Amino acid sequence: MNVVSNGVNIRHIHNFKGDHFPNKVTFMDVENVAMTANSLHVLALLAAFVVIFPVVENLAVKRQVVQPPAERTGSFYRGAVESPPEIVQTGPGFQRSSVEYRPNPDFRPRNPLPLKNFNTDLFLSQFHYPSLQVDHFRKQYPAVYAPVVVPTYVDDNLVIQKDVMVKESCTNGQGMRPNPGDCSGYQMCNHGEWVSMSCADGLYWNAELGICDWPANVRCALPESPEEVVAQPEPSPPSTEAPIVSTTSPAPAASPSTTLAPAKPETVATTSKPSSPSASGPAKVICYYTNWSWYRQGEAKYAPADIDLNLCTHILYGFATLDPNKGIMQVFDSWSDTDEYGPSLYAKVVALKKHGIKVLIALGGWNDSAGGKYSVMVNNPASRRRFIENAMIFINQYGFDGLDLDWEYPKCWQVDCNAGPASDKPAFAAFVKELREAFNPKGWLLTAAVSPSKAVIDAGYDIPSLSRDLDWIGVMTYDYHGHWDKKTGHVAPLGFHSEADVAYFNTEYTLNYWIRGGADPAKVIMGIPLYGQSFTLENPSNNGLNAPAKGTGQAGEFTRQAGFLAYYEICKTIANGGWNVVQDEEGKLGPYAYRGDQWVSFDDVAMVRKKSEIAKSMKIGGAMIWALDLDDFRNKCGCETYPLLKTINRVLRNYPESSAKCVVKSVQGVLPTTALAKTSCQENSYKPHESDCTSYYHCVFGQWSAHTCPNGLFWNKEYCDWPYNTQCGDGSQTYVPPVPSPTAAPSKPAETSTVTPSVGSEGAYVEWKPTTTTAKPTPSPFPEVTLPDTGFKVICYFTNWAGYRTGEGKYKAEDIDPAMCTHIIYGFATLNPSELTMQVFDSWADTDEYGPNLYAKVTALKKKGIKVLIALGGWNDSLGSKYSQLVNNPAARKKFVDNAVKFVEKYGFDGLDLDWEYPKCWQVDCKAGPDSDKPAFTAWVRELSEAFKPRGWLLSSAVSPSKTVIDLGYEVAALSPYFDWIGVMTYDYFGNWDKNTGHVAPLYAHSQVESKVFNTNFTLNYWIELGADPSKIIMGLPMYGQSFTLEDPTSNGLNAKAKGPGEAGEFTRQGGFLAFYEICHRMKQGGWTVVQDSEGAMGPYAYKGNQWTSFDDVAIIRRKSELVKTMNIGGAMIWALDLDDFSNRCGCERYPLLRTINRVLRDYPAPDPNCSYA
Predict the structure, then answer these.
(1) Matching fold, domains 282-530+603-653 and 793-1038+1113-1161
(2) 934 and 891 in contact (C-beta within 8 Å)?
(3) Could you tell me which residues belong to the region Disordered (predicted)?
(4) Would strands 314-322 and 284-290 be described as parallel, antiparallel, or unpaired?
(5) How many CB atoms lie within 10 A of CB 752?
(6) If we measure between CA atoms, which residue out of 1031, 999, 1025 comes closest to residue 1014?
(7) What is the DSSP string of 216-247?
(8) Beta partners for 565?
(9) Burial level of 1157, CB count in 10 A (0-12/13-18/19+)?
(10) Residue scoring higher pLDDT (38 or 171)
């Protein structure tokens, strides 16, 4: 198709200098305008003007220029390079600023024209775009328009126009075709129109194969340049009517954003009928809900019931994740999200739809964006199709209203723009387009959270394409600055600040840049943070903006993330006194506050109001918040609930104003009357309230902060507990506590229960003897004990996440008894999926000097003679193929080994424990991995051993107890020489996944268990039979139980039908799993029936109502330890230190299970207290 450039001579309507803007942006404007001008919507709009406005005698329009204010500090257009735009009345029927076209309300056509006569080249040429730019437009869309010859009027002159662009239609089934005139491009049929796409740099479109291919494989020749044809306009008679001067008032100049004057966004329909007070209005207020906020403790715990239904038009549930192996959506936390025996958060949040709120599922997030899995998916058309088909099922299954995409980011994986291929940009656009086509028939919403960074925007987003296919674009206008900068900066600047290094790191620039790039303003959503970024200053006396910072700020009391504080933590901390709050004199930033070496920036009510007003004046789509659980949703700071979110709704949705004046300001006076007088205290320590049993104090930032326990609980040393377990008040045993959800509370001990376990009785059904002591014993320092070298190892796993538990469940490095372990294995480091090298799993907990710094604290135990290893992997990290990719590639193995040597040396470990679960049988799926995993794993282990032995380091592995996995995944005889020990995980033989009750760790085969290979005795002997050195075999012992929910509470024996996992423990918070200290404490409270195995083949199980749990008690641990000794194998290992009764919660002794192991294997001298747990 030959496209002839229009050569109409036309008077220049104005003198706008296009060279003030980068060509790339200018071209984008041309494309958008041309596309829009030829769309049916714009044609319809022009038709409306033709019909509505009266015919007048003169078409001439007097040029009116509205100059912006001279001072534009911080605006999008700054300095000599980017001049402030003019708003120009251009005719015919349009106003123009630098970035948009809109109807001119003062246009009066003399002669109404038929719609078909709208001419694109004429339209473009009137805005004084050079012919090069028109040619660029033609190159980008060469075959989308067909030339026709029609008459056109210009300034009352008739022009014979030879090239009116008329869209060529298509049907979606036509798929793709070559792009005439552009070998590197192709066209896709989208909603009945051909849309041009581009191949990655250096590739041509191969029409035969339907792919982008090397040029050598493609037959493509570019046509010669089209010939220009010029038509002269005929003269028109002089006008007898005065020219019409526009009376349109210029937009106010208070904000740079008002220079855009975008078209009014569409009204958002809502079916919500909120109770008073209510909010209404066309703007969206989009609220992220995070499922992990449910795990926080006390007043910070956030549940769906805490959502104020009047404050959000849409809720985005964060997050689902992308399965790295299958490339499809998957539930992130099945227990909290979907399990009917867990909190079932999907169902509870989706239920809010009945109140008129739209609920979408968000996919991705920062953590899930690590590595290349999203890139792999979007760059493969077949993978995209599979993803979309699965996403349709996923959304339909769980009842969401749509999908929010939060891949951070195309091309710039986790802000590294060197990480991804350039093809991510068009592939992501194609992915979104295909989702749009699939979602449209369902009426589902499709949105995305996108970057505020200019570099990422340029590299990763095809803005016009995304704008067409997304319902809104949520711009994450926050996290511009943080501790990664090594100097202080504001989390979310509104505009350019005189002390800022970069002109484009602010909200105003970002939003304007998205709109200039082609985003529909009505679809652009401003992100507002309900949190602050915090820093630790290098010098407390240097505390302004850009002050040097040596790292993250101290973690919040509840959010527990260094460098990050929820708004409710900020306002409460400041209210407690001693903080200086600085408000920005330029009005470009929210406040920052400092005290000592702690510094935090955040948005307060005043700044949130200002941002909301900017959103309103720009007429963009609305605002979104991160996140609901971070606002002061419980009004702990004494203003009102949700002060920030309500402020947004007051501006955008007419939510009723409040008389409360929420001001965060410097406080130098005394603390509130509910708190102690200001005194210094040890960070993170606790103390009881002087007179109130339900209250306590927590030391935060060196000062005591007052807190209240949940209803019905009293303070008990380090946590809130049932009153009868405390020494506060009368401790009345008649108090009946409420039952918290979803975990059943322990019931009151039965006062009439006097039944004790009958020692030696086989199969006796007994109740636990209730304790007569309600006071919690205070742990004393561990005694210095030197044990003889018996040759047996006792290997203890330490888990870094146990430090995040609260109260009595919190486990710290200081809780380790050095006498109880010969070796400690720190779990876990993980495998970087892109680099295939070791990486720190939780940098704050593991290595941050301002965090717990657990690596250093645990390795410090080496001075007591304990060997400390780092474990790599674990169940979660074994998901997908990354370990298989590593071991099957000799070059990747070498790279890993070199890195591992540096890692172990850097952090001072004594060696490495491998916990890939499992070669060939990825997460026990033996169809998942290739057969080559088995020999490749051996090669990897051999190469690690060769690197470690000269350094005197240890190399070990945690391995499967399953015969099937052993056979398929391990070359046992070949592995044995290279390992210092082989830790056999002789536990988790049975669990809630079986749908029938079973024991977590049988010692021997049982008459009621069909499989004779699912027991410890068989597993250990099988490893030895296959060639493992017995002296290297380590028996695994569980310090926990597997729990079930029974289908029928009256059917409660082995192999009873179970409908799912048991209720989560109050501290471990994992359905189907209970720490030993949670189990024994439950039994103490009474009501549980404990069954000892009459065959002696397994430990006990216990049930109460529909709850059933199996576990190892002291007696079976003793027997297993004696078997270790009898078999003369290498020793025992435990999972894990934090799961034994390490604080003597159950009143026998500290670490009763671990001490039992040491009594048998290492002659631990302390007398056995004969703990009668069962």
Answers:
(1) yes
(2) no
(3) 228-281, 739-761
(4) parallel
(5) 8
(6) 999
(7) GG----PPPPPPPB--PPPP-PPP-SPPBPP-
(8) 532
(9) buried
(10) 171
902 contacts: CB under 8 Å, gap ≥ 6: none
Question: Which tokens belong to 1026?
Answer: 């296959």
263 contacts 522 by C-beta, under 8 angstroms: yes
The pLDDT assigned to 211 comes to 63
Q: What is the DSSP letter of 1048?
A: S
The pLDDT of residue 1077 is above 60: yes
Which pLDDT does position 673 carry in this prediction? Answer: 30
* The one-letter amino acid at 884: S
pLDDT of residue 717: 72
β-pair partners for 537: 549
Which residues contact residue 86 at a Cβ distance below 8 angstroms, ignoring those fewer than 6 apart?
14, 16, 65, 66, 67, 97, 98
Which two structure tokens, joined as six digits, stand for 138?
Answer: 């033609």
The third-level CATH classification (topology) of the domain covering 793-1038+1113-1161 is: TIM Barrel (3.20.20)
Measure the CA–CA gap between 796 and 828, rounded to whole angstroms: 13
- 897 token code pair: 């080994």
Look up residue 195 and give its DSSP letter.
Answer: E
The tokens for 178 are 């070559």
Residues 6 or more apart whose CB falls under 8 angstroms from that of 475 comprise: 450, 451, 452, 510, 511, 514, 524, 525, 526, 527
Span 91-131, pLDDT tens digits: 333 333 333 333 333 333 333 333 333 344 443 333 333 33
Q: Is the pLDDT of residue 468 over 50?
A: yes
User: Which of 141, 132, 158 has the alpha carbon at shortest distance from 3?
Assistant: 141
Which phi-psi region, left, alpha or beta, contains residue 729 (left: φ > 0; alpha: ψ -120 to 50)? Answer: left
Distance of alpha carbon 656 from alpha carbon 651, whole angstroms: 10
Buried b (16+ CB within 10 A) or exposed e, 110-141: beebeeeebbbbbbbbbbbbeeebbebbbbbb
Helix (H) or strand (E) holding 827: strand 823-831
* Annotated domain spans of the chain: 18-168, 282-530+603-653, 793-1038+1113-1161
For range 878-904, the mean pLDDT: 96
* Three-state SS annotation for 1063-1126: CCCCCCCCCCEEEHHHHHHHHHCCCCEEECCCCCCCCCEEEECCEEEECCCHHHHHHHHHHHHH
User: How far apart are alpha carbons 318 and 330 in whole angstroms?
Assistant: 12
The whole-angstrom separation of Cα 599 and Cα 597 is 7
Chain-centroid distance of CA 280 in Å reads: 30
Q: Which residues are catalytic?
A: 917
Taking the CB of residue 1011, how many other CB atoms lie within 10 A of it? 14
Secondary structure of residue 648 in the 3-state scheme: helix
CA distance 602 to 533: 7
Q: For residue 206, what pLDDT is reported?
A: 74
Q: What is the largest CA-CA distance in the chain?
A: 119
**Is residue 33 within 8 Å of 258, Cβ to Cβ?**
no
Q: What percentage of the chain has pLDDT greater than the value 70?
A: 69
Q: C-alpha angle with apex 380: 378 to 385, nearest 5 degrees?
A: 80
Domain made up of 282-530+603-653: CATH architecture: Alpha-Beta Barrel (3.20)
Give the pLDDT score at 328.
Answer: 96
Q: What is the dihedral of CA 928, 929, 930, 932, to 10 degrees?
A: -160
Q: Which amino acid is at 776?
A: K
Q: What is the mean pLDDT of the chain?
A: 77
Strand partners for 598: 536, 595
pLDDT in tens, 990-1017: 999 999 999 999 999 999 998 999 999 9
Q: How far apart are CA 1032 and CA 1037, in angstroms?
A: 16
What is the chain's alpha carbon radius of gyration, rounded to the nearest angstrom?
35
Residue 103: DSSP 8-state: E
Residue type at 1054 in one-letter notation: L
Place of tokens 């326990």: 709
User: If pLDDT is split at 50, 70 and 90, which confidence band does 53 have?
Assistant: very low
Measured CA distances, 283 to 11, 624, 657 (Å) = 41, 11, 17
